[in-house]
Automatic annotation (TrEMBL):
It comes from the Eukaryota. The lineage of its organism: Eukaryota, Viridiplantae, Streptophyta, Embryophyta, Bryophyta. Residues 12-335 form the Enoyl reductase (ER) domain. Coiled coil: none annotated. This is Enoyl reductase (ER) domain-containing protein. Signal peptide: none annotated. The keyword Nucleus does not apply. The chain holds residues 128 to 464 of 464 of the full protein. GO terms for molecular function: oxidoreductase activity, acting on the CH-CH group of donors, NAD or NADP as acceptor. Keywords: Oxidoreductase.
């Protein structure tokens, strides 16, 4: 069976040659009495943080991918063999596993059963999983939205952004999203119910663009991109604004000397900005169940819609990941293994 390995630490923009999809000789055996579980991967979640794990400095503290070794991350799969009483053949499970068509999970450790009768398995990698929960943590717990407030979200047509915008509407806010194509802008307004949307590649003067789309200023900024956009936002926020620092994808593929240096951060003082960076895994123990309950309701009622960008075949991993970093994905990017 096949697996995805790290071929090289990227220098600047990630390239397809930084990955290798190769055959592995690893035998698939589940020893009797071992408590082990064999999983056939169904979907791989493509997440921007993999770019940080491909680097040479462990910024996130999750451990780095090693050259020549399999990469790993969020997946859903089906149990195909089990010596573990908690899992039986046919169970659909969520976990952080190697990107390999089949994986033996020692003692089933870290696997979590999901209910495939409630939602398609891939939803547990998106709207009912980590990215959706990220949207909820950043908007609800950090942004503390109040009825009628003005919300801005970047990378708005992606996994996290689409949920941020729709939750903002549920919480009674006016929301404007920014994304990198006319197709995405249209999707935000017609499908996800955003009040307005910006194609940041067309509207290059960020400051003018924000003044135009936010005549009443910004109360909450959900930041997925960092850099120049975040800097422009500092000038346009209202008194007591909240900024949830979720990600900085505009900076991940730059060399250190190329990264954007903030010019407007000092506005944080007179505007009394509350700004908080967060890593979603820290909130899971306390709030994940509450989130899934709330979001399942919205999805069932049709209050929140969900769009996925599905690429078929493990072989396509390198291209799909580069696509995620360059905005080729419309919606949550997953590989159908
Ligand atoms: P997305 O599905 O949004 O995909 C990434 C998108 O980023 C692309 O589609 C592209 O859309 C946009 N993008 C790429 N390069 C740039 C750039 N230079 N400037 C502006 N936009 C760019 O990914 P996710 O929803 O999974 O992740 C969104 C953000 O959330 C990331 O920064 C990620 O690191 C962060 N994150 C943080 C978590 C946390 O715990 N803090 C957890 C999960 C995600 P476009 O066409 O609009 O450019």
């Amino acid at each position: 069976h096949k697996q995805v390995v790290l071929a090289a630490n990227p220098k600047g923009m990630v390239k397809e040659t930084d990955f290798r999809v190769e055959e592995t000789e690893t035998e698939l055996v589940v020893q009797p009495g071992s408590n082990d579980v064999a999983v056939k991967l169904l979907y791989i979640s493509l997440d921007p943080y993999y770019r940080e794990l491909m680097a040479e400095e462990d910024v996130l503290g999750f451990g780095l991918y090693q050259i020549g070794q399999p990469m790993w991350g969020g997946v859903v799969g089906e149990v195909v063999m089990s010596e573990n009483a908690e899992f039986k053949t046919g169970d659909i499970v969520l976990g952080h596993l190697k990107f390999s068509e089949y994986v033996i999970v020692p003692k089933g450790q870290g696997l979590q059963k999901v209910d495939a009768s409630q939602a398609p398995p891939s939803y547990y990698l998106g709207v009912l999983g980590m990215p959706g929960f990220t949207a909820w943590v950043g908007l609800k717990l950090i942004g503390k939205p109040k009825n009628g407030e003005q919300v801005f979200v970047t990378a708005a047509a992606g996994a996290v952004g689409q949920i941020v915008g729709q939750l903002a509407k549920v919480y009674g806010c006016r929301v404007v999203g920014s994304a990198g194509s006319d197709e995405k802008v249209k999707l935000l307004k017609s499908e996800f119910g955003f009040d307005d949307a910006i194609n940041y590649k067309e509207e290059k003067d960020l400051s003018a663009s924000l003044s135009k789309h936010f005549p009443e200023g910004i109360d909450i900024y959900f930041d997925n991109v960092g850099g120049e956009t975040l800097d422009a936002v500092f000038k346009k926020v209202n008194l007591n604004a909240r900024i949830a620092l979720c990600g900085a994808i505009s900076q991940y593929n730059l060399l250190e000397e190329e990264r954007y240096g903030m010019k407007n951060l000092f506005y944080a003082v007179p505007k009394c900005i509350q700004m908080e960076g967060f890593v979603v895994s820290k909130f899971m123990g306390e709030h994940m169940q509450e989130y899934v309950k709330e979001m399942s309701g919205y999805v069932k009622e049709g209050k929140v819609k969900y769009k996925e960008h599905v690429t078929k075949g493990l072989d396509q991993f390198p291209g799909a990941f580069v696509g995620l970093m360059t905005g080729q994905n419309v919606g949550k990017s997953v590989i159908y293994v």
